[in-house]
Amino acid sequence: MTVTWEDLGWERLAEGVGRCRLPGWDCTVGLVVGAGTALVVDAGSSLAEGAALRAAVRTLAGRDVTHLALTHPHFDHVLGAPAFAGAEVYGAVGLDVVFRHEREALRRDAVEHGVPAEEAEAAVHALLPPAHLVSGEWTLDLGGGRQALLANVGPGHTAHDLAVLVPGSPEVVFCGDLAEESGEPQAGPDAVPSRWPDALDRLLALGGEDALYVPGHGAVVDAAFVRRQRDALAARFGVS
Q: Which UniProt keywords are given for this protein, alphabetically ordered (predicted)?
């Protein structure tokens, strides 16, 4: 019997493109299936969550994860990354510095948000810097005519924000936490509020008016929603 995206709790967005919303923090993980390849966008909040995601991708794509893109360095998006051993890992320039020198802050943030201390410690201990750092745009050839554009559109939500654009009909843009639908965008101590509206302008320029925009948390939205959130952030932080 064929297993569908919906059978495993995933939402199909376009041919070979989908996402799931993880429990706990409603964090989105994306999947882009190519010819013999599978790109995952973000990795979950623990080694166990990462391993479960990897197993789900094997079922959906019929192959192991070959590429992993991390949208920004917050625990609910990256602590599952060590479970994807063997995958080519991508992140915005500077993500490597965070993983090397801010591990204790990452662990502490996870624990303060409810990740059991032992799980957070194990994940942080196993976390390695991304092998591939994106400073501008990086096109991945996933085979079979499938491509994905990794774009360093930040800073904004953090100093190291990466978006993933998947061409097609419709185009799909994985936004990370540059956009959030289930609540007001969170601006923590590592946010760069003065640059956030510019980051969303770049995101909109990449995707265009007809794309599906996938926030880091919440339901899929359209360009109009992203534009309204951009304007609200500009007003909130007093920038144009």
A: Hydrolase
3-state secondary structure labels for all residues of 84-153: HCCCEEEEECCHHHHHHHCHHHHHHHHHHCCCCHHHHHHHHHHCCCCCEEECCEEEEEEECCEEEEEEEC
pLDDT digits (tens, 9 = 90+) for 58-89: 999 999 999 999 999 999 999 999 999 999 99
pLDDT attached to residue 1: 65
- The CATH number of the structural domain formed by 6-237 is 3.60.15.10
**Secondary element (H or E) of residue 182:** none
Q: Where are the domains of the chain?
A: 6-237
pTM of the model: 0.98
Which structure tokens are listed for 150?
């990794």
Who contacts 2 (Cβ-Cβ below 8 Å, separation ≥6)?
Answer: none
Q: How far is CA 157 from CA 72, 147, 178, in A?
A: 8, 26, 5
Handedness of CA 192, 119, 39, 14 (dihedral sign): negative
Is 194 in contact with 229 (CB distance < 8 Å)?
no
33 DSSP 8-state letter: E
- Do residues 172 and 14 make contact, with C-beta atoms less than 8 angstroms apart? yes
The per-residue pLDDT for range 126-179, each reduced to its tens digit, is 999 999 999 999 999 999 999 999 999 999 999 999 999 999 999 999 999 999
Q: Are 148 and 88 in contact (CB under 8 A)?
A: no
